[in-house]
Specification:
By secondary structure, the chain is α+β, with helices and mostly antiparallel strands. It has 12 helices and 17 strands. Residues 26-82 are annotated as: Disordered.
């Protein structure tokens, strides 16, 4: 069994200390490498091709062929790819905001899985928990490669059955929030949130700058006047003490926590932090402890300039929640009206995926994205190792670039995906799917439209970071692939917008 130790999903105290000490916008602390082009990593060459149905077992010694696959993992050495599930979308909306403002998103902030997860998929949701599905298509620019889509979907929430919710809103009121309309965007988002809560839900609010202040004690959402007055009173002032704000927010969440109700902390910030004399260890431990009690953290980013994506994304991971970025009033509606209020229910906890590749058929594979969500292969069934939380009604997608050995279409599965999670009783559940090459679409035009959509998204992120597909797909090719999507997915405004953004970004 292979073991790959990359950046863990857990934020260490030392890492948080560096981040909270005032990372600048576009820092190199996120996914990627100092804004440089894609690092292909290991390079492997497969042995001679075997027959499709009964290929010879390859050995690590058969690595001297003419084909060399840069950036692909050799399944004869490591057939397993393991990662914690993730439903964040903030990286894509950051890209959209940057593109509209005529700037470029730093490559360290480009996380392919967050781009892909922003868009709707075509998975059939399960009746309960999570379900896994796999499909694939031949890459038009590499005929011996497949784009493999591993999709995980959760049961659709029934808003009538969800428990009442208690939300502790932690709002950044530092001086940097007075720039570029950040505070007005924050207020609009919070008003949208409150307007979509039940009268029996409760809201409390912390406003933090140099120190943290209670802006609203726990109040029923039905008392709209009191809540609106607290939102209207928010304003930028002083420096930033994010640790104090989170500490106060979790204190409020603890006070509100009641049996039979859901408790969430929602952090709204540009992520630019200066914690003064405080150390981060305590708040880090507090987030972890409260997560074990069912209090998840949702981080909401605002502000194209002076913005620290790394802090907000990693805090959400630490708090077993999700990270989003709000750039428009429409996005605030999407996140706070239908996204947050519609998915307060956790469908699965400690969710991990493990994808296995048959080395007799697969010459190499590459997981596209999820770099900072990797889990050691042997920890897949270790429930003491934290996975990701998946909220009801969400989907998450992992894409793989897979190089096959043979030219014949085999009916034997070359890829098997298993998702493992704990249900509402804390009982581990596993669900599995597999796929043979004979089941893959031989031409991209025959693939499901959502798979074609996801390939375009992956090609876009590859373009943004100078990835390995850039050798085969130029800017005009990317434009051409994207231009097809609005016709395939007629009526999907997000896809039509994607095609426009691709055109702007590659220009």
């Amino acid at each position: 069994m292979g073991t790959r130790h990359r950046t863990p999903a857990v934020l260490t105290a030392a890492a948080l200390a560096v981040t909270l000490a005032g990372c600048a916008a576009g820092s190199d602390g996120g996914n990627g490498s100092s804004g440089q082009a894609y690092d292909g990593g290991r390079t492997y060459a497969p042995g001679p091709n075997g027959a499709a149905e009964e290929p010879a077992d390859p050995s690590p010694g058969e690595q001297e062929g003419d084909l060399r696959y840069q950036g692909l993992t050799d399944p004869t050495r490591d057939p397993l790819s393991t990662f914690a599930l993730d439903i964040d979308t903030g990286s894509y909306t950051r890209f959209r905001d940057a593109t509209r403002n005529g700037t470029r998103l730093p490559s360290s902030e480009v996380r392919t899985e967050e781009f892909v997860n922003y868009f709707r998929q075509d998975y059939t949701p399960p009746r309960d928990g999570l379900a896994v599905s796999i499909d694939a298509a031949t890459l038009p620019f590499q005929r011996d490669h497949r784009i493999v889509r591993v999709g995980v979907s959760s049961a659709v929430p029934d808003s009538r059955e969800r428990p009442d919710a208690d939300l502790a809103l932690v709002v950044d009121c530092s001086g940097s929030m007075g720039e570029y309309g950040k505070m007005e965007t924050t207020k609009a988002a919070l008003r949208t949130l409150v307007a979509n809560l039940r009268p029996t839900d409760r809201v409390a609010m912390v406003c933090y700058s140099t120190e943290a202040e209670i802006a609203l004690r726990p109040t029923p959402a039905g008392d709209r006047e009191s809540v609106e007055d607290a939102i209207d009173g928010l304003g930028p002032r002083g420096s930033t003490n994010a640790a104090a704000g989170l500490e106060a927010g979790y204190d409020l969440a603890t006070d509100m926590r009641r049996e039979g109700r859901m408790t969430r902390v929602v952090l709204v910030s540009d992520g630019v932090a200066n914690v003064g004399e405080r150390t981060p260890g305590g708040i880090l431990e507090r987030i972890g402890a409260e997560t074990r009690h069912g209090v998840n953290l949702v981080s909401v980013g605002v502000g194209i300039a002076t913005y620290n994506d790394t802090l907000l994304e990693q805090l959400a991971d630490q708090g077993d929640g999700w990270h989003v970025y709000v750039d428009t009033a429409a996005e605030a509606e999407r996140v706070f009206a239908t996204g947050l209020t519609g998915s307060l229910v956790v469908a699965a906890t400690d969710a991990k995926a493990q994808v296995e590749f048959d080395p007799r058929q697969v010459a190499g594979y590459r997981l596209i994205g999820y770099e900072n969500r990797a889990v050691a292969d042997e920890d897949f069934r270790d429930d003491a190792v934290d996975g990701g939380e998946v909220f009801a009604g969400h989907t998450t997608t992992a894409l793989y670039d897979v190089a096959l050995r043979g030219s014949q279409r085999s009916s034997r599965p070359f890829v098997t995906a298993t998702v493992r999670y704990q249900d509402e009783r804390g009982v581990p559940v596993e669900r599995t799917g597999d796929l043979a090459d004979a089941e893959c679409a031989d031409d991209l035009v025959d693939a499901p439209p959502r798979l074609q959509q996801d390939l375009v998204v992956a090609l876009l992120t590859d373009h943004l970071v100078g990835g390995p597909w850039s050798e085969y797909v130029g800017p005009q090719d990317l434009r051409d692939y994207a231009a097809v999507l609005p016709g395939l997915l007629d009526g999907d405004a997000d896809v039509a917008e994607l095609a426009d953004l691709v055109d702007e970004a590659v220009a």
